[in-house]
Amino acid sequence: MARPRPNDIVALRLAVGILGERHAWWATHFADAGAQRSIDILFPRSAARAVAESLTEAARRVHDAKLGPNTFHLFRLPAAIEDALLDFQAMPEPVASQATIDAERAREQLAAAGAPPRTVTAGPLNLGRSSRLQQDATFRSIGSIYLAAADRGMLTLPYFDE
Fold this sequence. Notes:
The protein contains 7 helices and 2 strands. Helix 1 crosses helix 4, helix 1 (6-22) runs parallel beside helix 7 (136-151) and helix 2 crosses helix 3 (47-67). The chain is globular. The model has no long low-confidence stretch (mean pLDDT 87). The chain is mainly alpha-helical. The chain has a two-stranded parallel ribbon with strand order 1-2.
């Protein structure tokens, strides 16, 4: 059983964040071309990281508002995983800084994650115990769930119990 790698989680958050903007799941425009130009001026050496962190925070707020802050989801993971992500993002070349922030590329990345689930529901979707977050396959599944929901024109909120 492979453990999730921080760069894969950061890339997944970025892809879902971009998809969420395109489908108005959160009311932000950080990945728009105009916003990217402004962010490039404000953060010339870390613009992509600023976009990734802003998208993550916007998505976290939407998820927490609908699920409550005591659940785990892609944008609020157990402390050990979040700490690993912070350590990773502090490295000189995080994946976010190498990403092309593009909606089509985000869709392709999520489609490559695996087969879409048979059923996706709008709103909260319980995926079981948070111990599943120690498996790489869980994160691939999460990406497929968000993409399937977007294709069906709905917002789903996959989450895990403590």
